[in-house]
Write a structure and sequence with these properties.
Helix content is 34%, strand content 16%. With 176 residues, it is of the alpha+beta class. Helix 1 crosses helix 4 and helix 3 crosses helix 4. The longest helix is centred in the middle third of the chain and has 17 residues. It is elongated, with a radius of gyration of 17 Å. The termini are far apart. The protein binds zinc ion (2 copies).
Amino acid sequence: MRADAAVAAARRGRGPLKRAAEALRDDAEARAALVNRVVAVSPDVVEEASEWPTKRLLRWALDRSDAAQVTRTLTARDEAFVCVRCGRDVPPAGRTARDHCPWCLTSRHLDVVPGDRASTCQAPMRAVGLEVRGADLVITYRCEACAATFRVRALQDVAVPDDPAALRALSARTPT
Ligand SMILES: [Zn+2]
Ligand SMILES: [Zn+2]
């Protein structure tokens, strides 16, 4: 079964999704097609998509297929906002997009793909983990309402960087 057929089958429910994932598991080419979609849509979301289980790849493709038809390009949004948790005025990052509060690290579930503002969820997203990837620190976010997760780079090299103490505290809370 090829990637598109599998995504279409997965749309019919949990059982069909599971069967489609099983059918695709040993189809390296179709799996690669799904991985490429993840990477093409979310280069900023640092994820090891090639290591995802096939079921997760299919679910991802299914979730985004409608939104991807509307928004095919990433939008780098760098806007000031008021933090939903601590209420502070967060300035734009300047060099790159700001998507979380530099002081309490809280984000919001606004996007389906980065920058599209297409999510209907809007709930706060909590920083739940921190890992080191080369020179980058990568924060894992989980939505408090729908449990969607994102991974984004911590902002260290900007005028108002993520608070080092908050990042250290997050690192200490991260299970290893
Ligand atoms: Zn905040
Ligand atoms: Zn959400």
